[in-house]
Specification:
Elements lengths: L9 E11 L2 E11 L5 H14 L1 H6 L4 E6 L1
Parallel strand pairs: 2-3
Antiparallel strand pairs: 1-2
């Protein structure tokens, strides 16, 4: 995408242990801060990263992931 990332970008990651009807499961939460980038550009970048990240690919379909721009 050839986007220059802001030097003060931040990603806060958390993993939650949830208890549902079918037992325990994991949920990931990513709060992403990309100050100075247009919100649409930042969202497109976060979405593209989530699609291409090897870790995201490995857990896709097994772990719910919530991505929020802050």
């Amino acid at each position: 995408m050839k986007i220059t990332l802001p030097p003060d970008l931040a990603i806060d990651a958390a993993v939650d242990l949830r208890l549902g009807d079918d037992g325990y499961s994991l949920q990931g939460r990513l709060n992403i801060s990309l100050p100075g980038l247009d919100r649409e550009v930042a969202q497109a970048l976060a979405d593209a990263a989530h699609e291409t990240c090897p870790y995201s690919k490995a857990i896709r379909g097994n772990v719910d992931v919530e991505i929020t721009l802050v």
